[in-house]
Amino acid sequence: MVPIRSVKKESVECETEHFLMAQKQLDEIAAEMGLDAELHERLRYPKRSLIVSIPVRLDSGKVQTFTGYRVHHDVSLGPAKGGIRFHPEVNLGEVAGLAMLMTWKCALMGLPFGGAKGGIRCEPWKMSSGELERLTRRYTAEIINLIGPDKDIPAPDMYTNEQTMAWIMDTYSINVGYTVPSVVTGKPISIGGSLGRQEATGRGVAYCAKQAAAFTELNAKNPSVVIQGFGNVGSVTAKLLYESGYKIIAVSDVYGGIYNMDGLDIPRLLAYVSEMGKVGEFAGGKTISNEELLALPCDILIPAALGNQIRKDNVADLKCKIIVEAANGPTSPEADQYLQDKKIVVVPDVLANAGGVTVSYFEWVQGLMHLFWTEEEVNQRLEQIMGRACQQIFELSKKTGLRLRMAALRIGISRLAEAKRLRGLYP
Ligand code: GLU
Fold it and tell me: pLDDT for 172-187, tens place per residue?
């Protein structure tokens, strides 16, 4: 494969390791599908990127200035869509790489959106609620020209939640002079959020895990599952798979993990975590480190925490049959290659965690129509869209021998390429 050299190559600021990982996936599938070289080059970098300085008065009275980002990768199919994350490792490259993944994810799911991502480099767990509110509101004011219900619709991501979305919605609305619920998704229900949005990512992950079990003809009666991360996504996935008879043998959070080879009692664990704030000393399991957890023998491994968790240095320790990527970018390209060689099936992030943005789409549509659906309707429509995407990807993979990630990207990128071809190039 001959990578396309861009004249911008030496001078593009977003080319961090994280960004290059997303770009490498694009290069690989572009070569495989014979994507038009000029179109390929247009898709290799974000359409627009904004870096902002965010001065915030802390509770101590001092002012600290944070750095924030919002990147639009592509908007050919509709307004840009993607989450906002608060994390100390946020940088332009990470946000740009994740924005690119959002483009493929929305196209793959057939949603009328382009891809975006945003973030603020900060340590949210060290900040008070008041400081987070001032940080969010000032960030919103700084990126206000980029966002809007027809332009770019943010949503929650790592360490942001429905309260963060309520502050963005309020700040935007105050500035334009009227209430605009559809400027964000993942809002609280009482101000225009959708039923089922909070559970949607985990619901989609659980659905994909079941589809992947059927696809690989996993014959286990109660497939064993290991989940890294027990936040909004990991905990909902655990609950739904447990209810479907899967045996959740280990889970972890930032502080550490627990395991029980006979299966954890997930309802009890959920009650424990909501009281204690961590899985740590739950009586129904033994403690385990994050490395040990990833290496446990199991049928399905679900990374639902940070990116870059399955790497060259630890991939050979894995003893699972299927990986369902609930997090964005949990597998490095070298590890991905190794997993393919070992015939471990990887359900890629762009499919596995797409339940979140799919119900975000429903929330946006309901807000614009001022007509709201029942939770049943939301879940049913989610399953319809996820089911269609799974089927198309599994079929293409079977037909061509492409691994699921490449099959998913090929479907998403083909749709986008068709749209760009029809729209033509301005001027
Ligand atoms: N942050 C989520 C993701 O990475 C959701 C994005 C959205 O709902 O717009 O897919």
Answer: 999 999 999 999 999 9
Nearest one of 293, 308, 271, 314 to 225, comparing CA atoms: 293
**Ligand 1: centre distance to CA 356 (Å):** 6
Verify whether residue 117 is a known catalytic residue.
yes
Q: What is the dihedral of CA 277, 283, 286, 292, to 10 degrees?
A: -20
Mutate to test the pocket of ligand 1, among 77, 160, 184, 360 (most ligand atoms within 8 A of CB): 360
Q: Which amino acid is at 191?
A: I
Closest CA to 328 of 301, 345, 354, 349: 349
Strand order in the sheet with 224-228: 286-288, 256-259, 247-253, 224-228, 300-303, 322-324, 345-347
> Which atom of ligand 1 is closest in space to residue 353's alpha carbon?
10
Residues with CB under 6 Å of ligand 1 are 81-83, 155, 157, 185, 328, 353, 356-357, 360
* Whether the bond into 427 is cis, omega within 30 of 0: yes
Which domains are present in the chain?
14-178 (3.40.50.10860), 198-352 (3.40.50.720)
Which residue owns the Cα nearest ligand 1 atom 7?
A: 357
> Which long-range contacts (C-beta less than 8 Å, at least 24 apart) are formed by 380-383?
382/196, 382/200, 382/203, 382/204, 382/355, 382/358, 383/207
C-alpha 357 – ligand 1 centre gap (Å): 5
Two tokens, residue 237: 């996935």
List for the chain the helix, strand, coil content (%; round to 5).
Answer: 50, 20, 35
Catalytic residue among 117, 187, 210, 239: 117
Q: How do the pLDDT tens digits run along the chain, 427 residues long?
A: 555 555 555 668 899 988 999 999 999 999 999 999 999 999 999 999 999 999 999 999 999 999 999 999 999 999 999 999 999 999 999 999 999 999 999 999 999 999 999 999 999 999 999 999 999 999 999 999 999 999 999 999 999 999 999 999 999 999 999 999 999 999 999 999 999 999 999 999 999 999 999 999 988 889 999 999 999 999 999 999 999 999 999 999 999 999 999 999 999 999 999 999 999 889 999 999 999 999 999 999 999 999 999 999 999 999 999 999 999 999 999 999 999 999 999 999 999 999 999 999 999 999 999 999 999 999 999 999 999 999 999 999 999 999 999 999 999 999 999 999 999 999 9
Angle, CA 222 vertex, CA 220 and CA 228 arms, to 5°? 105
